[in-house]
Structure formats: C-alpha cells, structure tokens
Design goal:
Subunit structure: F-type ATPases have 2 components, CF(1) - the catalytic core - and CF(0) - the membrane proton channel. CF(1) has five subunits: alpha(3), beta(3), gamma(1), delta(1), epsilon(1). CF(0) has three main subunits: a, b and c.
Distance between the termini: 78 Å
Organism: Amaricoccus solimangrovi
Structural class: alpha+beta
Order of helices and strands: EEEEEEEH
Membrane topology: Peripheral membrane protein
Keywords: ATP synthesis, Cell membrane, CF(1), Hydrogen ion transport, Ion transport, Membrane, Transport
Oligomer: single chain
Family: Belongs to the ATPase epsilon chain family.
Strand order of the largest sheet: 2-1-7-6-5-3-4
Length: 145
C-alpha cells in the first residue's frame, strides 16, 4: 500500500465531503461489501443505499450514509461518490439517529405536499362547480373577448 486516498462525496446541491489522507475505506453495492486501499485499480459501481466508512492512517472510522449514487475510483488515489443524499457522522449511533430524523422529515414534507395538492384540487373543483351553476363565464373560458 502506497500513498493515500482522496475522498469526495457530492449531491446535486453541494459538496458534502472532501477529505484527504485516507488509508482505507469500505462500502457496499449490489454484489456485497468491498474495500478500497491506495493503489486500487480503477473501479466504478452503483450504490443503492448504504454506509460508506473510512479512516486515516491512525484515526477512527468515520461514516457517511448514502442514497442512490455512483462510486468511482480513479488513478488508485481518487475516490468520488455522486449521490442523491448523503449524511456524514463521526459515529454510527449518531448517523443512525440523523438518518431516522431525515427520513421522518422527508415523510412529513411528502405528507404536507400531498395535503396541499388535495387542497388546491378541491379549490379548483369548487370554482368549476360555481362556474357551471351560474351558467356564466366568470373564468373567461368562452373566448369572446
């Protein structure tokens, strides 16, 4: 093993992590768990969802939860992950709680969006019903300017 790895994790909106001097890292794709060391052959795979973990020569493991990404190793020294979502943490327990909180927040936002869509749909139906009941063209749909 020679040198060190550089790791970059990005989402469509931001660079989540840029770290140098990584001694090793582990991740998981559809075929299973794999490890990367400096000098690794070029490699490309798809990560559905999972936890990436890495450490420096003497440091503790660090973690990043990933959802829907591409994992690439180039030149035996550059590791890049482009994913939909990423959450970084220094310990697994903290990461677990942060992922659970992010899931709950996403579910709540989805429920609010559905509720707002239903409200707008009901409002449009009520407006159309008023239009039909009045027999007029209060919406300007008739085309006679």
């Amino acid at each position: 093993m020679s040198g060190a790895l550089a790791l970059t994790v990005t989402t469509p909106l931001r660079i989540v992590l840029e770290e140098r001097a990584i001694a090793s890292l582990r991740a998981e794709d559809a075929t299973g768990d794999f490890g990367i060391l400096p000098g690794h052959a070029d490699f490309l795979t798809v990560i559905e969802a999972g936890v990436l973990r890495w450490r420096g020569a003497a440091g503790p493991w660090r973690y990043c939860a990933l959802r829907g990404g591409i994992f690439a190793v180039t030149g035996g020294a550059e590791v890049r992950v482009a994913c939909r979502e990423a959450i970084v943490s220094d310990d697994l327990a903290s990461l677990r709680s942060r992922v659970a909180a992010a899931r709950a927040e996403a579910l709540d936002a989805s429920r609010r969006a559905r509720s707002e869509g239903t409200r707008l749909h009901a409002r449009a139906i009520r407006q159309l019903m008023r239009e039909l009941a009045s027999g007029g063209d209060t919406l300007g749909l008739d085309g006679d300017g």
